[in-house]
Amino acid sequence: MIRWLLLLLGGALLGGIVHLATVMALPRTATHDAYSRLAASAVNTVVPLPSPTPESATMPFMDPAFVSAVCRYDLSTGPLKLRVPVGPAYTSVSFYTRFDVAYYALNDRSAGRRVIELDLMTSQQHNDMPEEEDVTAADRLIVESPTPTGLIAIRALAPEPGLIPAARAALAAASCQRQDLSKMGGQ
């Protein structure tokens, strides 16, 4: 009896370890993730996404009430400056690593401005930035990416169908451009 209980306990323990290892490895082994589906889009450029349909959506869990755009970024050549004008109702910006791990999010209400503006860089690029005494954290928002590549998902809410053109226009004016470290001190 005790032998069977030990076998069952060992099997459950081994099954739990295999399950956890599989769940942890799945994002790195998935071949059809959001980053791969957007591989044809330009790097460091905001690209509008088509409206989702029940049959197809570029990214998972897309809401038809939101107009979406993405910026597939690569920080290996330098930091980025992200500028997103605020849409008519609500605008959010979410940052993901290459393997779909969310690491930062910001919306228009927390930004407190009509334009969400920030610098995206690696921790090494942040350390290499020149120090300025007159620039504070309130003046410049800096987001550190844990990986050199990833996705920025930009969403603008259109609570009524008539507001969709205004939300699209706001996202069309968004930019995600490479910055020169030597010029970042003078902003």
Characterise this structure:
The chain is of the alpha+beta class and 187 residues long. It folds into 2 domains: 1-30; 34-184, Immunoglobulin-like (Sandwich). Helix content is 29%, strand content 29%. The protein has 6 helices and 9 strands, in the order H-H-E-E-E-E-E-H-E-H-E-E-H-E-H. It has helices at 2-29, 34-37, 108-111, 123-128, 164-172, 181-184; strands at residues 46-48, 66-74, 80-85, 90-97, 102-107, 115-121, 142-144, 149-157, 175-178. Strands 1-2-8-4-5 form a 5-stranded antiparallel sheet. Strand 6 (115-121), helix 4 and strand 7 (142-144) form a beta-alpha-beta unit. The model has no long low-confidence stretch (mean pLDDT 84).
Q: Please identify the structural class as seen in this structure.
A: alpha+beta
Mean pLDDT: 84
Q: What percent strand?
A: 25-35%
- The arrangement of helices and strands along the chain is HHEEEEEHEHEEHEH
Number of helices: 6
Shape: globular
What portion of residues is helical? 25-40%
How many strands appear in the DSSP assignment?
A: 9
Named at the architecture level, the CATH assignment of the largest domain is Sandwich
How are the strands of the largest sheet arranged? Answer: 1-2-8-4-5
State the distance separating the first and last CA atoms.
74 Å
- The poorly predicted ranges are none
CATH class of the largest domain: Mainly Beta
Q: What is the name of the CATH topology of the largest domain? A: Immunoglobulin-like
The largest β sheet comes out as:
5 strands, antiparallel
Output the radius of gyration. Answer: 21 Å
Structural domains: how many: 2
